């Protein structure tokens, strides 16, 4: 066989992706950067320099509000979600009877489409007839306006996100746990390590690459929450759920300020790049790759 | 932890996970008085099967379900076909810049869709494709998404190269090797990509919201949103309509579960 031919074929096979990357990713990214320096309403376009950015950063309290909402949500939902998934996986890894059935039951909530999930939870959070307030009422609490009182709305969103902890992330953790060789634990037990120390010094380090992967994608996902806010609260009450993605959508497709919306999108991109870079930097301290020398 | 308390705890958690479903089904089967009964009854006094028919016919759900199936299946086929083709290119060939390009594939997984949303919308508007299914379907035929490429490539790498070579000595072309050797051996990962792709597009809200304007072209997700606007106060019907949206994903999951779980597990091992 000739040596040059295969390479060209390889390039031909990846061509669909490469074209898609150029037309749907790289090109639009550059275009949106250019747009962010204009005022554009789908009919006329003006170059306005950095005005969009100045307005957003110094003259728009709603921007800071949406950032605060989104960061707060991410700060609670991502760590709680990862911890919850890991806890479920640890329990299922105890060779308990019916593991497969539990795994399936825990997985089901993550299959619910987001619009249906938003409607279903709106009904659960309903202040007068919702299931949550009824259940809390049995213990003498309740009467909370979950989706109408701005002190609780974001909390309600976090609770709702935790319904999905048994999804793909839990399955991945479980696979990771099942992949840890029993001999590590045997060695630890010989050294007299308690269950906690085994978890802390064997399980966690060996799972850390998977956790890191989930952390990165979890934060990015949390910054893109849109459907729930659009369906359940429309960003309210008093902008308590004015998530960043909702801000971009409204500016682009309801107010037709596409230049400003592009600037918002680029600010989001820069923020996420910074957070991701920070996580990669910090990961050197806690993520262990197998086969790597440990100090 | 001892086995018995653990088992009890797992059962408790399963109940917590299932209660929202049961509550939804229960509400969907009540009449409009009983929905607001206090204390709430789990099993309706008379079961209102008619609610499903009422919800289904109140708005054109038949049309919407057909639309969604068309879009979803087209996207799923596109992602499986082109995703595996691109994965074949990345896993079986050496060419200049391959590893850099694959790094780009991985990097796009971390790209928030909002950054490209507006210019992509402008492209489709320029092509006069607003209120058609092209903007929803066509992108799926361009490599099928970074995560899917990654997943399939990972799987292809675990298939010994000797199989390809043996087939090529027998005169098979590259395309034939992909279609007749690699794809049949990759059932678990293809099932995973297929199910994830189906569920993802069945669920998609943002795309149809931006691109579809005429109600008769709606998919179920934005149709359900319209239902909420028109019949939001009739909670029993709203829950029945939501179940229409939920049911297909669950049914599909149960059919594909065996392959699917294995595929997801493989994806996790790739995270290392």
Which properties best describe this structure?
heterodimer; A: 295 residues; mainly alpha; two-stranded antiparallel sheet; globular; B: 272 residues; 13 helices; 0% strand
Summarize the structure.
The complex is a heterodimer of chains A (295) and B (272). Chain A is an all-alpha fold and 295 residues long.
Explain what this protein looks like in three dimensions.
The complex is a heterodimer of chains A (295) and B (272). Chain A is mainly α. Chain A contains 13 helices and 2 strands; from the N terminus they run H-E-E-H-H-H-H-H-H-H-H-H-H-H-H. Chain A has helices at residues 5-35, 51-59, 61-92, 99-107, 114-124, 131-138, 153-162, 168-178, 182-190, 195-222, 227-233, 244-254, 258-286; strands at 38-40, 45-47. Chain A has a two-stranded antiparallel ribbon with strand order 1-2. In chain A, a hairpin with a 4-residue loop joins strand 1 and strand 2. In chain A, helix 3 runs parallel beside helix 7 (153-162). Chain A is globular. The model of chain A has no long low-confidence stretch (mean pLDDT 91). In chain B, helix 2 (50-58) crosses helix 13 (235-270) and helix 3 packs across helix 7. The longest helix of chain B is centred in the C-terminal third of the chain and has 36 residues, at 235-270. Chain B is mainly alpha-helical. At the A-B interface, helix 1, helix 3, helix 4, helix 5 and helix 8 of A face helix 1, helix 3, helix 4, helix 5 and helix 10 of B.
